[in-house]
Amino acid sequence: MLTAADRELSRDMARFYDDPLGFVKYVFPWGRPGLLAKHTGPDSWQEEFLADLGAEIKARKFDGHTAVSPIRMAVASGHGIGKSTVSAWLAHWIMSTRPRAKGTMTANTAAQLQNKTWAQLQYWHKLSITRHWFEISTEKMWMRDQKEAWFVSAASHEEKNSEAFAGQHALDSTSFYIFDESSGISDKIFDVAEGCLTDGVPMMFLFGNPTQNSGKFYRVNFGSERNAWNHRSVDSRHSKFTNKALIEEWAARYGEDSDWFRFRVKGEAPTGGLFCVHPAGCG
């Protein structure tokens, strides 16, 4: 049975159904004593992204049962701007504002998924005002007493595990997928996930460094699928979180027009094919 405080909190969460930026500013203790004492809120690119997402939801006018067009958003960027943080915020916002939501999160490697992407979900869970509503483990976050009906799970990106992305539907809610470091994820995984964007208010989010000039992540940001996505490139030099002195050193060492600098800093795809990610080159 909900307490009076939880009923009030539920009403607050309902207000943020189409306002993810408002949610992020409300549920986390910005500027208060503790882990966020020196932080006042999201970076400017994060605010713009969340505001755009809110506009996408409002435009669809979901009535609770008639399926609407999927929300598809992608961010190509350099390093260190807070992409995994946004992934965590998105999962918490959807889970807190949409009863019976179902989600899957993945990344290009098992280490990235567990140590960065999922670790960020756990970190922000500890800070969220709705944390007592949910249980969280190393592989799943779920609403208490509704583990199979209202959840987000971590899943391996490997092609042999593609079935983990199938069959995820939420007729009166949101089925969502969050892909971190998307350049390294097979098209087959995306294809399977796309098949689950057929009901409710489905959402798919792609984040990463654009290390290739082919594949799904390239196409949605720079190629043939870009018109079907809300996409953006974020330059690391414009983020408040990045080390500007180090970036200047990279610019001097590799050149601002080098492929290395393009995808590591500018959030632009390399001019070659699959780019060698080792700064010293591959021979």
Structural commentary:
This protein has 283 residues and is of the alpha/beta class. Helix 4 crosses helix 5. It has nine helices and eight strands.
Can you lay out the helices and strands and say which pair or pack?
Blueprint: H1 4-15, H2 20-27, H3 44-60, E1 71-77, H4 83-97, E2 102-107, H5 110-127, E3 134-136, E4 140-143, E5 151-154, E6 175-180, H6 187-194, E7 203-208, H7 216-222, E8 230-234, H8 244-254, H9 259-266
Biggest sheet, strands in spatial order?
A: 3-4-5-2-6-7-1-8
Oligomeric assembly: single chain
CATH superfamily: P-loop containing nucleotide triphosphate hydrolases
Mean pLDDT: 93
Shape: globular
Share of helix among residues? 25-40%
In short:
This protein has 283 residues and is an alpha/beta fold. It has helices at residues 4-15, 20-27, 44-60, 83-97, 110-127, 187-194, 216-222, 244-254, 259-266, and strands at residues 71-77, 102-107, 134-136, 140-143, 151-154, 175-180, 203-208, 230-234. It has an 8-stranded mixed β-sheet with strand order 3-4-5-2-6-7-1-8, sandwiched between helices.
